[in-house]
Amino acid sequence: MIRFAARGLLVGVALPLLVLAGGPGAAAQSGTPSATASPATAGDITIYRDEMGVPHVYADTAPAVFFGGSYAIAQDRLAQSELESRALLGRLAEVAGPSMIEADKTARIALPTDASMQAQYDRLPADYQAIMKGMYDGWIKRVREVKADPALLPYEFKEWGIEPTEWTMLEFLKVMGMVFKYYGTGGGGRELTNLALYKDLVAKHGEADAKKIFDDMLPLQDPDAVPIFPAAEIQTYQSGQPRLTVLQGELPLEKLDPAASGPPRRGASRVILIGADKSASGNTMILQATADGPDLHLSGGGFEAAGYVFPTMSPIIQGRTDTFAWSATTGEADVVDIYAEKLNSANPRQYYFNGAWRDMTVRKEVIRVRGAKPVTFEIESTVHGPVIHRENKENVAYTVKNAMADNELSGAAGGLEMNRAKTFEDYKSAASKFAGNTNANYAGSDGNIAIMHVGMLPIRPQGIDPRLPTPGTGEYEWQGFIKDFPMVMNPKQGYLHAWNNKSTANATYGDSSRYGKAGRTWLGRMLVEQKGKLTREDLHEIHRQVGRAAGGADLTVTDPRFFTRYLRRAVQGDAKLEAAVEAMDGWNSVYEDKDGDGYYDSPGLTVYRTWIKTAQNEVIGHTVGDWWHKIEDESYIKYQTDVLLRAIEGSDAGAPMTYDWYKGRSKDAVLRKTVADTVAALEKQYGTSDVSEWRQRIFYFYYDPAAQAKNPDKPTRSSAATVSATVSASLGRVTLAAGRLGLQPPYIPDNGSENWNMLVEVKKGDPVLYDSTPTGGQNLFVSTEGKGNPNIADQVKLHETFEFKKVDLDRAAVEREAVSTTKISFSGN
Questions:
Q1: CB-based contacts of 626, cutoff 8 Å, min separation 6
Q2: Helix (H, G, I), strand (E, B), or coil: what is residue 578?
Q3: Strand, helix or coil at 298?
Q4: Per-residue DSSP letters for 652-664?
C-alpha cells in the first residue's frame, strides 16, 4: 500500500548539494519506454497566463499541447512534485535519511516494476504514447532549465540540498499511474486489520458473540444508507451475499504489522449535479469539491478542457470542456483483496496454487539513505501480488491483489478521453475507460446530467467473506471484472449527489468502506430538496452550508436529530439534561461564526461533539475497546456514527444489531448516563451550567506550522489541518516553504471544506470554469532568496469564503486578459 505521508523531512536546514539522477539501476537502462508509435508531430506552443496565474496552453498537435501543459505545471509546482514523486517511488530516504526507510519500503512494494510499466506503455494506442512522451519531455525541459539557471531553483531544493531530479520516463509514468491507483483503489485492503479484530473478539467474548459483534461493526449491508442512484432508474448488477467462513476466521495472525494494514487514506470528493428541470435557468449545474491540484487549460490537437491536474502532471482530472463539465469522485468499492498463501514448510518461498507448489518471484531493491549506508531488501510476490506479512510458524504469507496492479497507466485513458470529449456519448465512452473505481459525473450544455459508476470491479466467487483474507490456493480467484456499469441519467428527482457513498441500494460492502443513514450526504440532499428550482446562487449557498458542515474534514459528524428523538425520552424529567439535548437538537450541523467573535454560534455543536464521543465509548467502547481507532483511523469513510445510531435505534434500524450492546442494562438508562456525563464534562470545562455559554472556539488551518504553538487559542480540527513541509496524506494542502516564510498567512479559519472547489452553470456558448484552491494559489514557486510570486496566496481568501475565480476557455478572452505570454517549441523527437 502507498504511503503519501512523508513525515520527518528535513526543513529549514541547508545541506550539501546532492545531485540525483533517475532511479536505482537507471544507469543500466535508459528508463525510456521503447515507443511503438511514430515520432510525435512537432509543434509551436503558446502559453498565456491570466491574472490568477492559470496557464492556457495552445498548440496544433495533442503531444505539443501536453508538452506545454507539463512544462507550465513544472514551473508552478516543481518542489511539490519532487516530494510527491519521491513518496510514490520510494525515494524519500535519499533526502530525509533513515526516518523514511520504512515508508520507502512500503512504496516500493506497491510500485510496478520497470518491465510492468514498459508493458503497460506498449499496450497503449500510438496517440496515447505520443501524448505521454510529450508530457514527459515538457517536464524534463523545465527541470533542465532550472538546473542550468540557479535563479529558477525553488527555495525548497536549497533546504533539502538537492537539485530537481531528472526522472526517467518510466519513473515519470510510474508516478502518474500510482496517483491514479491511489485514488482508484481506495476501497479494500484492510482484511488483516479486520482479522486481528475478529481474533481479539473471539479471545475476549467467545466465538458466538464475536461473530455478532463483528457483523454489527462491519456489516455487509446497511439498507438505511442512501445510494447515489435512485433504485428505480438504473440497471443494477447482482452480487451474492458473502458470509464469514470458518476457514477464513481461523487464518493465523499472531501480531498485526502496522505496515501490512496499510496507511491511513484521506481525501476524496463530493458532487451535486442539478438537472435542467431542477434549474431555474434551464441550464445544468455542477458543484464539486475534491483533492487539491493546480489548474491547467489545454487547447489544440482535438483537446479543449480546463480544470485541475495532479501536481506531478496528468490529464485534466476534473473541470470542463467547451460543451460540458465533469468531475470524478472515488467509488470506494472493494477492489483490493488480501490473500492467504499456503507456504511449503520445506521452502518458505514456495506457495501452493492450483494443485502445485510454485516459486515466488523475488526482486531486490536498494534504498539509498542520506547520512547512512544503503538498505537492501527483497520483495516477494505470488500470482496475487507482493507479500506484505508473514506468519512463518503457520506457513502462511499474506499478499495483496489490487485490481489496478499492472494496470496503473491505464488510469490515464479515461482522463485523456474526457479531455477531448464533445458529446454525451463521448462522455460515456470516456467514463467506461476509467480503470480506477470512480463515479464519473456529467453536466452538459445538452441539458443532461449523469453519473456512471465505473472501474475494474472484480467479480468474486460465492461464499467468501470480503472482510477477511481469502485463501490463496486457487479455489477462490476473481472471475473477471464487471462489464455493465450502473448509470443514472436525468433522474426524476432532478439532481444527483455523490460523496463517496455506495452507488446502488443492493451494493454490498467489502473490508473497509461502509455507509449508513448518518452518512454525510444527508445535508446536501435536504438542502436541494427544500427548494423548487435552484439558481446558481442557491447552489453556491448550498456549497457554503455543506462545506461548513465539515463532512470533508470529520466524517463522524451528522444530523444530531438522528439521535435526539431517542435522547429526549431518556432524559425526560431532568431539566438540565433536557436543556443539553434541546441545544443539540437545535444545531443545524453547520460550523458557523456569523458574528465573527471567534466562537461557533451554536452551543449545540459543543454538546454534540462531546456527547458523540461519550456515547461511543459508553455504548460501543465498553465492548470493543480501542478497535474504533484501529479500524476507523485507517479508512477514509467512517462508519462509527452509524454503528452507534443502529445500537440506539434498536428495531427501528434497517440493519438491527444482533449483539446486546447494553449488556442487559436499560437503553434509556445508558443514554441518560451519556448525556449526564456530557453535561458534567462541559460544566467543568466552561465553569458554568448555562448551556448558552458552552461555545467552542472556531478551528483554524495553519499555513505556517510554527504559528500553531504560538496560538493555543486557535485550535485545529485535527492534525490534517496543519500545513507542513511534508507531502500531505491526501496529496492536498501542500504549501511547502511559502507559509513558513510569511508569503502566505500563518493561519486562516478552517472552513471545513475539501480542497479544489468548482461551481459551473453549463451554458451553451459560454465556456467558463469557476474554481478555487486552498493551497494558496496556482504557483508555489519561492526563489532561493525567499521571494514569492503574485499567485502564491491570491486564492487563500477565495477558498476560505467559498468564492471562485474565473477560468475562461474562449481564446479571444484568454488573449485579451493574459498578463504574460510564453512561446516554446516541441520537436516531437
A1: none
A2: helix
A3: strand
A4: GSSS--SS-TTTT
What span, in angstroms and rounded, lies between the C-alpha atoms of 362 and 707?
Answer: 47
R_g (Cα) of the chain, nearest Å: 26
For residue 717, how many other CB atoms are within 10 A of its CB? 17
Residue that has been written with the C-alpha cell 508538452 in this structure: 67
Q: Are strands 375-381 and 387-391 parallel, antiparallel or unpaired?
A: unpaired
The dihedrals phi and psi of 482, each to the nearest 5 degrees, come to -65, 135
The pTM of the full predicted model, rounded to 2 decimals, is 0.92
pLDDT tens-place string over residues 579-632: 999 999 999 999 999 999 999 999 999 999 999 999 999 999 999 998 877 888
Confidence of residue 493 (pLDDT cuts 50, 70, 90): very high
118-126 — which CB contacts under 8 Å span 24+ positions? 118/33, 118/34, 118/170, 119/406, 120/173, 120/177, 120/406, 120/407, 120/408, 120/409, 120/410, 121/33, 121/170, 121/173, 121/409, 122/33, 122/34, 122/36, 123/410, 124/409, 124/413, 126/36, 126/37, 126/38
Task: Of 821, 827, 772, 814, give the one whose Cα is nearest residue 297.
Answer: 814
Q: How many CA atoms lie within 13 A of 82 on its CB side?
A: 30
Tell me the residue type at 234. Answer: I
pLDDT value for 242: 38
List pLDDT tens digits, range 787-802.
999 999 999 999 999 9
Nearest to 676 by CA among 615, 623, 619: 615
CB 184 within 8 A of CB 330: yes
Name the residue type at position 281: S
- Give the CA angle between residues 677, 679, 680 to the nearest 5°: 65
Report whether 248 contacts 470 (CB < 8 A). Answer: yes
Tell me 327's DSSP state: E
Beta carbons of 350 and 333 less than 8 angstroms apart: no
More confident residue, 49 or 413: 49
Q: Name residue, grid cell 471545513.
A: 752
Rounded to 5°, angle at Cα 298 from 122 and 793 = 115
The answer to whether residue 663 scores a pLDDT higher than 80 is yes
Cβ(735)–Cβ(721) under 8 Å?
A: no
